[in-house]
Amino acid sequence: MSAARGELPAVARRRVRLALRAARERSGLSQNEVAKKLGWSLSKVQRIELGEVTISPTDLRAALDIYQVADERSIAALLAEARTARRERYLTTQEYRDHLTPGLVQLLQFEQAATAIREYHSTLIPAYLQTPAVAEATLAWFEQTLSEEQRRVRRDVRLSRRDQVLKREDPPEFCLLLDEAALWRTVGGLAVTADQFEELAAVSRWPNVHVRVLPLDDGMMMGTFGYFSVLDLGADPDDAVLYREIYLEDEVVEDPAQVRYHRDVFERFWLRAFDEDASRATILARVYELRAKLARAESAKLPRAARQVSQDQGMES
Fold it and tell me: What angle do CA 302, 307, 310 make, to 5 degrees?
């Protein structure tokens, strides 16, 4: 991982908590025994290991001491990570802290550290693959729930994430599983939707991007899963996090069992989906249908005489 990615507070906090838990388990001490030895509450030990709170360098040294971690390089690295983790509240601008959920702020950091991302969507194109027009139209649905400023910030974040994640140096392998139902939802009008699907087909040709469409006639339902994303952070399959979102509620889940379950579900349906070439053809076929429908609608607006001239010109050509 590059130095820049190593400075991400959410990633640093995760590494510290995993290292502490592993060190405690190697020492043979229970969480309750650690709490007694350090004079902490049991809940403090538990919350640190769950990543719910950060740990100060002083407390970290004390914990490593009773875990008998003696390697100075390892200790120094963990102390640096602990300091980085405690900077999390200062990472983003004030408007990010005011207008983005804590889960999304964490996701933005984990995306920068991810080596692979598996993402499932049942209803919409992923936020960072959306065109500006679709991002505007999608966020407009929430005008009763989100303020104009909140929508503006979220739009700006959406439009910056594609370059920050998929076009960065050493980008992650991105696998998008899209339910075919998403291709039948018109967002922002026929032209806007057609432009969006055309853009999706183009991005699907990028070397690190893989898009598959799960056909409607498959007979299996994934819609109950909502939107979720599994982000691999290293070579170990358990070094991963899960992000899931339903409506305006979202969360980052680090429970290995939940991460494995969602990864397995994704892989199972990935194999049932159209292959990448067939998926791209399906997307482009939908673009053609939308363009044809738009052309018919425009033609219907013309006076009858003008339509006849247009048809005659078409026959002559």
Answer: 120
Q: Are 146 and 101 in contact (CB under 8 A)?
A: no
In this structure, the number of other CB atoms found within 10 A of the CB of residue 240 comes to 23
CATH T-level topology, domain 3-90: 434 Repressor (Amino-terminal Domain) (1.10.260)
pTM above 0.85, yes or no: no
**228: which strand partners?**
120, 244
For residue 222 the two structure tokens come to 């994934």
What average pLDDT does the segment 253-268 reach? Answer: 92
Dihedral sign for Cα 48, 52, 57, 58, please: negative
CA distances from 51 to 7, 20, 205 (A): 17, 11, 38
Q: DSSP label at 144?
A: T
Winning range, highest mean pLDDT, from 68-72, 143-147, 244-248, 262-266: 262-266
Cβ proximity of 134 and 125 under 8 Å = yes
CA angle 270, 271, 274 (to 5 degrees): 80
Write the pLDDT tens digit of every residue in 221-259: 666 677 899 999 887 888 899 999 877 788 999 888 999
DSSP letter string over 259-290?
A: HHHHHHHHHHHHHHS--HHHHHHHHHHHHHHH
Give the pLDDT of residue 143.
86
Query: What is the Cα–Cα distance from 73 to 82, expressed in whole angstroms?
Result: 14
Query: What residues does each domain of the chain span?
Result: 3-90, 94-297
> How far is the C-alpha of 240 from the C-alpha of 242, rounded, in Å?
7
**What CATH code would you report for 94-297?**
3.30.870
